[in-house]
Amino acid sequence: MEIKSEWGHLNRVIMHRPGTEITYAMLAPKPFLFERPFNYSIANKEHQNLEDTLRENGVKVDLLENLIVDEAEKKASFRQKLEEKIMALVNFYGTMESVEEAKKDMEKNIKYVDPLSLFQALIMEPSIDLKEYVPGIQYPRVYSNLPLANLYFMRDQQAVSSGVLLGKMKMQQRRKETDITSFVFSEILGAKTKKITEGFFEGGDFIPCGDFCLIGTGNRTDETGAMEAINSGIFNFPRVAIITNPLYDFMDGHDVMVNMHLDTYFNIPAKGMAITSVELARVARAKIYTRDREGHYAQETETTLYDFLKGEGYEFINLGISEQLSYSSNFLTLSDRKIVAIDSSKVIKKLLAENVFDTDTRQKIIKDMELKSGKMFPDSDAMAKSGIDVIKIDLSEITGGYGGAHCMTSAIDRT
């Protein structure tokens, strides 16, 4: 379980196919950090198609649900730990007597509950309010403290390099996701892990590049978390560039899609090549840290993301605003010069039809699309000339949660 570069051959990923936990997000997208509501049935098929595409290209795809359910069925010791986790998670409300009785019943009955139901309880986190309305009969009002609607964005809870760095999520809606993924990495996969405790760090802000890595900071990962990450012992790179994720000059600080994570405007499809909004990369500040013989990092210089990579000999494929805002950079690299990419033209048409953007942004997007004459990423002229092998897939529904193929996959092994 090791990753040194984004272009290394992708061997294994963990994914989570979204289930009933996203129902609430369809009714109230913004509080659940979604961009827009979407058709769950279509989105589920899109996710399965992404899974199948990866398998067809030699990638081992582990679904989070299967990992937990299968382990609980095979190993009694893991099943016991899962039961204990659920017992601590489920809350009862009511009279002291009714709560105590309910807890005892659950403790007695949980051994009969199948592993799939235990997994669903894990991501729904139910609370049960008990009120007696006739003698001896209680009316159960069920709440879900916070169903983990964003769990299918499996990139963000952790980052893998020389081990697994378990992040700390900035948004409260996502904080408990790392409890589940850390449980899987430690108890099922037996991985070397380290946890972020002081700052905030999310996996979508980490991109490994061979002898250096990039860490984005801003909307989700902060500088404290980035520094904690590079000193964790998990990121064994001679150099680290800590990037301040930028915005377009006409935007205020609330457009989370532009600068939520590094991978929302930047990605690497091949050694020495970057696909990004060059406009954003030119203004993204980059602090370059180098490691001494004792393993300590110190800042060496400050530049921009664009200038730093240009100095490393990188070539750039530019994304216009219409492409960047439709998740074009959120592709998944399978190997050097081979990627799985979103059909961004379908996404942007859906976003425009649903009036997601303000008037100013919308006008800039339409103008950019006109300049491209319909040839958007990954069908652009620049991509055709690049020699990159592209597998284009439709993720136009499921991206409504704010993320593409890169966000939906936790890459855990590349060679």
Task: Please describe what this structure looks like.
The protein is an alpha/beta fold. It folds into 2 domains: 10-61 and 151-414, L-arginine/glycine Amidinotransferase, Chain A; 68-144, no CATH class. 34% of the residues lie in helices and 25% in strands. It contains 15 helices and 20 strands. The protein has helices at residues 23-27, 40-56, 64-74, 76-89, 96-109, 115-124, 177-187, 223-230, 256-259, 278-283, 305-311, 321-324, 344-353, 359-372, 381-386; strands at residues 10-15, 60-63, 91-93, 126-134, 137-144, 158-161, 163-166, 193-195, 206-208, 212-217, 239-244, 266-270, 273-276, 285-291, 297-304, 315-318, 332-335, 338-342, 389-393, 410-414. It has a 5-stranded mixed β-sheet. A 3-stranded mixed β-sheet has the order 2-1-20. Helix 3 (64-74) packs across helix 6 (115-124) and helix 4 runs parallel beside helix 6 (115-124). The longest helix has 17 residues, at 40-56. The radius of gyration is 22 Å and the shape is globular. GO terms for molecular function: arginine deiminase activity. Keywords: Hydrolase.
Amino-to-carboxy terminus distance: 10 Å
Mean pLDDT: 96
Structural class: alpha/beta
**Could you say how many structural domains there are in total?**
2
- At CATH level 3, the topology of the largest domain is L-arginine/glycine Amidinotransferase, Chain A
Strand content: 15-25%
Q: Number of helical segments?
A: 15
InterPro entries: Arg_deiminase
GO molecular function: arginine deiminase activity
Protein name: Arginine deiminase
Organism: Ferroplasma acidiphilum
